[in-house]
Amino acid sequence: MTELDPQLFTEPPARDERFEIKQTWSEMTNMWADDGTMLIEFMHRQMNEEVNGLEIAARNLTDFPDAPWELRLAIARQCWDESRHVNAFRRCFEARGGEIGMFPVMNFEYRMIMAIPSLIGRLAVQNRSFEAAGIQAIREAIEHAQHDPDVAALLDAQLADEIQHVRYANRWIESLIRSNPRYALDVVRAVAQANRAFPMIAGEAAMHLELDDQIRTEAGFADAPAAPA
């Protein structure tokens, strides 16, 4: 099993004996042709990633008890959203014959984010980067799921929540930096750390997703929509 740099990745979250844990994308069950199980594997992987999202948000509450109350409330709401996503993916997964643990999982997001020492840095990487990229991926997945209304409805509901997660993070990052410009350094350090860590996980599978103008506007990015060229 690949060993990850302890300066960039913390200890993994707890998982029971049903789960086979992998460290990098290349070690996962990566299917390129749909033989009937690709969707089931995706749901199993996504279900665990939503658990990661819940664990990260919960740790942000416990690790930063002195954060502004309104921010803590937004993070608590994200915990609720992520728990609903977990249950929704599990329902669709098991309805298609899936069993927990039938595919390996990764916990790289948790391990990367928990290595970031500041709350604003975690919001910048998890919400503003990972979840923002996820929004674009979900939008594209919905287009391919129209033949399966159950999956399309699941993804559509998830999309609405993820947009809100990015929006509140953008709002609070901007607010915190206005209150203390030194917070901008925490953002820069966190993003630089994540940029070093992520290629160790993704390798050649790393992808860069460009957010369209509608998503940028809905998610609260300050420069949205982009100016026409």
How would you portray this structure in words?
The protein has about 230 residues and is mostly helical. It has a single domain (about 20-220), classed as Ferritin (Up-down Bundle). The protein is about 60% helix and about 0% strand. It has seven helices and two strands, in the order E-H-H-E-H-H-H-H-H. Strands 1-2 form a two-stranded parallel ribbon. The longest helix has about 30 residues, at about 150-180. It is globular, with a radius of gyration of 18 Å. Mean pLDDT is about 85; it is low at about 225-229.
Précis, in short:
By secondary structure, the protein is mainly alpha-helical. It has one domain: Ferritin, core subunit, four-helix bundle (Ferritin), CATH 1.20.1260.10.
Give the SSE map.
Elements: E1 21-22, H1 38-63, H2 69-95, E2 105-106, H3 108-113, H4 119-144, H5 149-179, H6 183-202, H7 213-218
Parallel strand pairs: 1-2
